[in-house]
Each structure stands twice: as structure tokens, then as C-alpha cells.
Design brief:
The protein has helices spanning 2-12, 20-28, 60-70, 87-93, 106-118, 155-160; strands at residues 49-52, 55-57, 77-81, 98-103, 124-128, 141-146, 161-172, 178-185, 191-198. The protein has 208 residues and is an alpha/beta fold. It has one domain (2-198): Rossmann fold, CATH 3.40.50. The strands form two sheets. The chain has a seven-stranded mixed β-sheet with strand order 5-4-3-6-7-8-9.
Length: 208
Amino acid sequence: MAEQQVMIEYQIVARGVHDPRVLEALRTVPRHQFVPPEYVDDAYDDRPLEIGFGQTISQPYIVAYMTELLAPLPQHRVLEIGTGSGYQAAVLAELVAQVYSVEIIPELGTAAQERLKRLGYENVQVRIADGWLGWPERAPFDRILVTAAVSQIPPPLLEQLRPGGRLVMPLGRPFGSQYLVLAEKSPAGNITTRTALPVRFVSCTRAQ
């Protein structure tokens, strides 16, 4: 699809994402299948799109940037918090052995699971639950990616991250500054963090 190739070259590569595996994943995953019908014509624009329930599908550049920062390898098991439409999970599924994705909104999680299965992503499992708590039964994870903003890294996610692993997520206030953060766990279990770029994500929803 011409629009998809334009997205890759002018929205992603031109802005500094160069990992060939990540770019190939973005070329492979049909983003138009992950947006509501009224937004199909906008699927390859470099902007977030509404998917209902106050949630969005992230802009393609941010998906590519976060995925490259995560540095996923073919043998990895990845935890994603915030399934949304399932697009980020599909991109990860092109790159790793297994993706475990947690979504707190049942309607979104169910629809994403069905969509991913229909598109042939058998290496993705979706769970309806509070993402702050991770997925302890499937831990440890080589990589963790969070697609909603919170004020601090959830301790359960750091506990479920394998030594040597990486976690990428937005940190910040709902209507204030947010920054993408990379956290790395050393072989000894120590956590180091560094800030990447400013972002704007929906806030993490917690179970009542």
C-alpha cells in the first residue's frame, strides 16, 4: 500500500528510526485493520486516532520509536500494558516469540484479541485485567512496554522484568509533562532509567 510506504519513509525513517526489523514490522502490519471504519482513510497519517472508550491508537512514529527503544529480539517474551486496538501488539508479534498483552477495558481487549487472531497473530495472548499489576503468572519478561502514562513505574512491572531486561513507558501527569522513559534491569537486579523524548499519552486506567 502506497500510504504505508510513505508513512515508513517520511514519518518514521526521516525522523530517526532505522532498525531494519522494526521498519519491516511496520511495513507488514496493516494499520488500517486496527482503526475504526471512519478512520481508515487516516490510518497511515502520523497522528493518534480515537478507538473508543477515551483511548487512542498511537501515532506510527511513536510506535516505531518505542519499539526500537525496547530492542526486542526474536527469542524474547514481551509484556504489553494497554492493548488498545492491538496494533502495537501486532508489531511486537512480528519481532518476538511471544507477546502477552493486558487491557483493562473489556470491550477493547475482546475486540483486539479477535482482530489479532483473525489476522493470524497466534503468538499474542490478551488478558482483561489491571495492567498496573502486570501478568505475574507469565513472568519473567525479557521486555515490557506500557502504552499509557502513570506518575511512576509500577513496582510489579519491575519485579516481573527479567534481569538484563528493558522496560519502555511514558511517565507524567495526565494534563502535564510526560516523557518516554527507558528502564533497564542489570543482571544483579539494579534498575537504571533514562529519559527519551517528550510524549502525550492517555492516562493509565486502574481497576476500581
